[in-house]
Write a structure and sequence with these properties.
The protein is mostly helical and 389 residues long. It has helices at residues 22-25, 37-61, 68-86, 95-116, 120-148, 153-156, 190-213, 220-241, 250-271, 275-303, 308-311, 325-335, 353-362, 368-373, 382-388, and strands at residues 338-341, 344-347. α2 (37-61) packs antiparallel against α9 (250-271), α4 runs antiparallel to α5 (120-148) and α4 runs antiparallel to α7 (190-213). The model has no long low-confidence stretch (mean pLDDT 95).
């Protein structure tokens, strides 16, 4: 495949040539232990992005009569893309192990985005959110040890620390303190728009997974743990989606989303270590470029605008799929005591009364996050040491 330098210059695979079979959609999954953890990070991220593409297009179809058919046609391809990507996860992942993997995605990808984001306020928002996901990882790692006797590092492969962060008990905020200042559509850089759509998609997927998986646990602490953290994930969806300019038209948001999808598949192609999985990323990058060209034409037809206004210039540098340990540790050291008051970030002593009262009521009968991690401290080789003792 030729090197991608511009989103507008690459034509991609036309939509009517994007074909699938059931066999390839449910092909051989990755190995939980033998594949690199960042292969799984990419799989989880791209599934979340594809499912968000379906969500956006389904909502858009409710408000746009003339776009209903092209939306349905692109959705069908992306439904099958999402299936093929998500089915790469292997059955030997327990739901809790998959949860640990989801939190690794949230931490490492959001940390990468925070460092690349040119808008200081938006970057601050990503740093704020990643510290909360960092604590969620610690709580779920403790739950994995408690229920299954497993070491979360078997999933994380040493890339991501397992330590407490800003405590989950203080993540619960009044809705007014979860809204953020949006970028300005006419002045924001393309990568800023891509980041906001990308992290919203990833967090939405995490929220939905926890809402579906949580009730299936018999352990009462695990059930409540998922309920508590799923609520925080909805807050994260609220904060990240509010970073996007609400004055963008639906077609403008669709255009940005397709650009975001292509950008992320390009990032996957550039860094994937598994040749079989890399071939899937290359194929779907070609598909997304085809979708992008279709939306560019719709944008010209229905809005009489040039897509160059939104997508012009060179392709942003790929998101870096690698351990962000040192950056996360630095943020943890410097920003653990941050809270929010309205759209602003403040010291914990300046947090508004609305969030304090909201949180006190929710936590008034105890919190599972504290119970799940009581007495837990991760140490290397935990699982092997337990078996030997």
């Amino acid at each position: 495949m030729e090197t991608l330098t511009s989103l507008l210059d690459a034509k991609g695979c036309p939509l009517d040539q994007q074909k699938f079979t059931w066999r390839e959609m449910s092909s051989k999954p990755i190995s939980k232990l033998d594949d690199d953890a960042f292969t799984r990070v990419r799989i989880i991220l791209m599934n979340g992005i594809e499912v968000d593409a379906l969500r956006l297009k389904n909502i858009g179809a409710r408000f746009n009569r003339e776009l209903r058919l092209p939306l349905a046609e692109v959705r069908r391809a992306e439904q099958h893309q999402a299936t093929m990507v998500n089915w790469l996860l292997s059955a030997d992942h327990s739901p809790l192990e998959t949860t640990v993997a989801y939190e690794q995605v949230a931490i490492e990808v959001t940390a990468a985005v925070a460092q690349r984001e040119p808008d200081p306020y938006q970057a601050q928002t990503y740093r704020f959110g990643l510290l909360e996901d960092f604590d969620h990882l610690y709580r779920y790692a403790a739950m994995l040890d408690r229920l299954e006797g497993k070491d979360a590092n078997n999933i994380l492969q040493g890339y991501t620390d397992i330590i407490p962060s800003r405590p989950t008990t203080v993540h619960h905020r009044a809705p007014e303190d979860d809204l953020r200042n949006a970028y300005q559509r006419d002045s924001a850089e393309l990568i800023t728009k891509i980041h906001a759509a990308m992290i919203t998609a990833a967090e939405y997927q995490t929220h939905d997974y926890y809402m579906n998986i949580g009730p299936t646990f018999a352990d009462p602490v695990a059930r409540q743990l998922y309920a508590e953290i799923a609520s925080v994930e909805e807050q994260h969806v609220t904060q990240y989606s509010s970073l996007q300019d609400p004055d963008e038209s639906f077609l403008e948001k669709w255009l940005i989303h397709e650009a975001m999808e292509a950008y992320n598949y390009h990032s996957c192609v550039e860094q994937e270590s598994n040749p079989r999985i890399k071939a899937i990323w290359e194929r779907f990058l070609d598909y997304e470029l085809g979708h992008l060209q279709l939306v560019c034409e719709l944008f010209k037809t229905h809005e009489r605008r040039d897509p160059q206004e939104i997508l012009g210039g060179s392709l942003p540098k790929p998101v870096e799929f690698k351990s962000q340990r040192e950056f996360v540790r630095k943020v943890l050291k410097e920003e653990i005591d941050l809270r929010t008051k309205g759209t602003e970030y403040v010291d914990s002593q300046q947090e508004g009364a609305a969030s304090r009262e909201y949180r006190d009521q929710l936590n008034s009968e105890g919190t599972a996050v504290e119970t799940a991690s009581a007495g837990y401290r991760w140490a290397p080789g935990t699982e092997l040491m337990q078996k030997a003792s």
